[in-house]
Amino acid sequence: MQARLRHHLANTTAVATAIASLMLLAASSALGAETKTFTGEKSCGAPVVTISPPKPGGYCLITQSSYKILLGAKVYYTAAVVADGVLTSPVTLVATDERVSTATGQCTFYLATPTTPAHGLCTYSSGTGKLEGFHATYVVEPPASPGVRVYPLTGTYWFDRHDDSDSD
Prior knowledge:
This protein is an alpha+beta fold. 17% of the residues lie in helices and 39% in strands.
């Protein structure tokens, strides 16, 4: 039991350290750009999603978003690997705008255990179309209901470009 508790505490500490480090990195990278808050929700299971991660072609659908262009976007897990209860994958977000803008990044997701709810962290570092210069860091919070694969999202985003085309 103590070994399991130490393992859980080590994982929790590692996640907290990673989140703090990424937020610090995000803040320092965004000094020249305006950082905005992002909130949303993504669904990673049926009936909303037909192929769930980590299956090949697996994706999550952003069903709520405070940033308009991300509403309805699909986040594809392009090379998902699950090891020791942790899913990691490069991700490609595909927006539904007329330019089919994209953003690329990385997600790490800790699967639920008997003592810890599922949670994760995603970062994006580049984009195309209306998401050109897009950077984001967001926390994937535990689902509101156990067994339901709908996750609240909270984080920040910014652009490293000098125009205003991120205003939609």
